[in-house]
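User: For a benchmark we're assembling, each entry needs the component sequences followed by a predicted structure for the full assembly. Here are entry 17's components. Please fill in the structure.
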Amino acid sequence: MSPNRVRRASRDLAKKQLELLGTVTGVQSAVLFSADGFEIASHAADTAAASRLAAIGSSLAALGSAISAEAGLHEFERTTIESKNGTVTIMRVDNDQAMSLAVVAGRTAVLGQLLWATRHCCQALARLIHE
Amino acid sequence: MSTVDDGEFKIVFTGPMGAGKTTAIAAVSEVAPVATEVANSDLIAHTKASTTVGLDFGRITLASGQIVHLYGTPGQARFRFMWDILGRGAAGVIVLLDATQAGALVQMDMFVDAFLPLVPSGALVIGLGRTTLPGALGSEAFAARLGARGITAPVFSIDARQSRDVFLLVRTLACILEAQANAEAAA
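Assistant: Structure for entry 17:
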């Protein structure tokens, strides 16, 4: 899905979903991006940061798909980078792998809650963007 | 880090979007190549259907017995962080360019400037694609551009789909590295 083909109204709705995700404990920022690394919508990330997260996120999602395929597993679902001061989760939004969501969270986040909320957000995003 | 002396080393294929990096690695790799291609939504940058956003990986064994790991980079500048990751530890760099692109000379400068600092050997080979098409720049223009900047590198006209052409680039790079190793041994 080209970010250019996502309607302005859908982008605004996507931004609202990301804002909702922003209310989850520990979430610092979130960026929805195309498979080839373009930002579609973001929350609490400035333009430059959102662009970089989108590009790096798309590489990670592509590497996730490559290693899943290499291991003979099914399609890539998500990857979580755990660092000293928090986590970054990259989760695919839709079945055709056209979009993924990157969520940055600090140490106060509870991983299970974070993953559940991110999954919930991805499902909502998939519905509104394909409407 | 592996070195040329160990008989196993890494080289990087880089260059702009659509230059043939993924194709070149697939053309020569003796193992099933790893690719990270996704749908291309940036049709202004290039009209092709898919684009690499992570890395390409392949492997070949040269007649000398040396094993060469081939890494391909994404072409767009927004993936520059991958250039730095992939360039680190590389023995040499192959820059692929589309000779019909108006900005091919500037693109060459950009990739050479991005990768040479990452590669201590400075070993560089340029592969020009689509040189037989109308409007293509000749290889002399690229050689002159490098020469004016004090950079010595062989420039070849290639078809990235042809394994013999891609082998030529890799073998040339291996020869440059071998010549450097011999010069160091003699010094």
